[in-house]
Amino acid sequence: MIINEKIMKPKFTILTASLIIFFITSSFLIKKEPIITTIYLIGDSTMADYTGDYDSGKDYMKTRFPVTGWGQVFQPFMVKDSLNKVPNLIKTDSVLVDDRARGGRSTRTFFQEGRWRSVYENLKKEDIVIMQFGHNDAAKEKTERYVDVEGYKEFLRLFVSQTREKGAIPIILTPVARNYPWKDGVLNDVHGDYDKAPKDVALELNAMLIDLNQKSRDFFTKKGEDYVAKNYFMNLPSGIYEAYPDGQKDNTHFQPKGATEVARLVFEGMQELSTDIKD
Is 104 exposed, middle or buried (0-12, 13-18, 19+ CB in 10 A)? Predict the structure, then answer.
C-alpha cells in the first residue's frame, strides 16, 4: 500500500498545531497556588496580637482594648505595594504575618511551652522569623520567667540556628523601649545588658539585627514625654474604656497609635536590612 505523503503531512501539521494551542490555553486556565512568605513573630506582650483567640471566649473590645501589640498591626505594612521596598528580604508578592508572641514570655518560657516548636515545625524556606524578647527575661523578681543574660543569649542562638536549618531568615530585635527613664527631654535606656545581648548574638552569628530599642527611644524622644505617655502608652483616664473603668498607668504596653508607630519602625528596619543585602 502506497501512502500519499503530501496528503498526510498537512493533517499532521494541523493536529500538532491544535495540540500546541490546547496546551497553551490550558496553562492559562490552570490556577496556580500563590507563593506566600510567612513572617513569624515570636516574643512578648509588646509584640502580641490580643484579638482573635488570644483570650479564648472573651471579647477583646470589652476585656483588653485599647492595649495593642505592635505585631497586631504589622500586617498592613506587608501589603503588596510595600513589598517592593524590601525586595532582597521578601521575594514573593504576598505575605502572611503569623503573630505567635505572648504576654509574660521570656526566651526560656517561650521555648519550654512548645511555642517555638510549633513555629519551627511549620517553617519553610525563605520564611522570616522576627524575634523580640528581653522584657521578661530581665524580670529577676519573677523567677517563673527570668533568664540570666547568658541564658537569654543561648535561646536567641537556638532560635537563629534552627530558623536557618529550615532555610528561613532570622531577624533579631533589641527589646522595644519602655516609657522611662526620661532625663532632660531624652528617653534613656532601661534594658542594659538585655539590650546588648541581642547585638552580641547577631554579631557572633552574622545574623540580621534591628535595633528597635534605639529606634523607638529616638522616635519617642522626638515626640516628647507628655505626648508619648498620653498617646502611645497605656496611660488611660478613668471612665473611658470598658476594660479599664478606673483608668490605667502603664509605661510598657501600647495603645493603637503607639503600636502602629513601633510596627512602622520595624518595617523601616527591614527596609534598611534589605538594602544592605548583597544580591
Answer: middle
Count Cβ atoms within 10 A of the Cβ of residue 22 and give its class: 0-12 exposed, 13-18 middle, 19 or more buried.
Answer: exposed
Residue 7 has pLDDT above 80, yes or no: no
- Specify the pairing of strand 186-187 against strand 182-183: antiparallel
Place of cell 515545625: 121
Looking at residue 13, what is its pLDDT? 55
CA quadruple 176, 182, 187, 189: dihedral positive or negative?
A: negative
Q: In which band, very low, low, confident or very high, does the pLDDT at 35 lie, cut at 50, 70 and 90?
A: confident
In sequence order, which residues have a C-beta less than 8 Å from that of residue 2 and are 6 or more positions away? none
Helix (H) or strand (E) holding 160, with range, is helix 149-165
Query: For position 118, what pLDDT does the model report?
Result: 98
Summarised one tens digit per residue, pLDDT across range 80-92 is 899 999 999 999 9
Q: How far is CA 204 from CA 89, 107, 109, 129, 166, in A?
A: 21, 18, 24, 18, 20
How many C-beta atoms surround the C-beta of residue 57 within 10 A?
A: 5
Q: Which residues touch 227 (CB under 8 Å, ≥6 apart)? A: none
**Which one has a higher pLDDT value, 10 or 124?**
124
C-beta of residue 151 within 8 angstroms of C-beta of residue 110: no
What's the pLDDT tens digit per position in 201-253?
A: 999 999 999 999 999 999 999 999 999 999 999 999 999 999 999 999 999 99
Closest CA to 171 of 220, 127, 112: 127
| CA nearest neighbour of 171 among 67, 98, 89 | 89
The residues near 246 (Cβ < 8 Å, ≥ 6 apart) are 238
Architecture category of domain 34-276 in CATH: 3-Layer(aba) Sandwich (3.40)
